[in-house]
Amino acid sequence: MDKPLAKYIDHTLLKPDATQDQIDVLLEEAKQYDFASVCVNPYWVERSAAALKDSDVEVCTVIGFPLGANQTALKVAETEMTINAGAQEVDMVINIGELKAGHDEQVQADIHAVAEAAHQHHAILKVIIEAVLLTDDEKVRACELSDAAGADFVKTSTGFAAGGATVHDVALMRATVGNRLGVKAAGGIHTYAEAKALIEAGASRLGASAGVAILKEAEAAK
């Protein structure tokens, strides 16, 4: 690891029934443990930005989430609105159906439009490819299109489909993007052993709701 474990982790709460009190606990934990970011739904961005303004924890949110099938203009508008509300990182879902149909131009254009909107406001774009729904060839293509479209990261999963991050997918994604992009593993990461294996496979960021437990387990393993 080339940085503290906490700085690999986007401390995440994206459940549809998350309450303000639960978000506030997430934010306090993020400050206490100095995570890389919190990842919250767009509604909670403004509150998160206010709570974290005196810390070095970033605010990350999700775009076109969790299905990715919104119109590009809506993804762009959501990106601009959430950045204006305080988000510094945005995790967008690709148009999965268009990727599977082989409509690469549409997929790349969708990502590129969001990348431009993010970068105009100095925000980072992570592209969620929802790997569990793709063949290996489709995963590679999704990563290549994200790279060509100007994304900063590729990300394995929303956590809302049938599966999450795997060592195989992270290694494949890292092999595809090399050192040009970050790779974020997300979905189903519950233990320090899982986190460590994904980092060793090439993940430069982890999306996890179990970040505190992972850090405590890592500390106990020392």
Kindly describe this structure.
- Helix 5 (104-120) crosses helix 6.
- The relative contact order is 0.14.
- Helix 1 links the parallel strand 1 and strand 2 (37-40).
- An eight-stranded parallel β-barrel has the order 1-2-3-4-5-6-7-8, surrounded by seven helices.
- It contains nine helices and eight strands.
- It is of the alpha/beta class.
- The two termini are 14 Å apart.
Compose a concise summary of this entry.
The chain is of the alpha/beta class and 222 residues long. The protein has helices at 20-33, 45-51, 72-84, 96-100, 104-120, 136-149, 167-177, 192-201, 211-221, and strands spanning 9-13, 37-40, 58-63, 89-93, 124-128, 153-155, 182-186, 205-208.
The total strand number stands at 8
- Elements, N to C (H/E): EHEHEHEHHEHEHEHEH
Helix content bin: 40-55%
Class based on secondary structure composition and strand pairing:
alpha/beta
Could you list the spans in which at least 5 consecutive residues all have pLDDT below 50? Answer: none
- Our measurement of the CA-to-CA distance between the termini, rounded to an integer number of angstroms, reads 14 Å
Physical arrangement of strands within the biggest beta sheet = 1-2-3-4-5-6-7-8
Mean pLDDT: 97
Q: What portion of the residues fall into strands of 2 or more residues?
A: 15-25%
Shape: globular
**How many separate helices?**
9
- The Cα radius of gyration reads 16 Å
- Main beta sheet strand tally, sense and closure: 8 strands, parallel, barrel
What would the keywords be for this entry?
222 residues, alpha/beta, 8-stranded parallel barrel, 8 strands, 46% helix
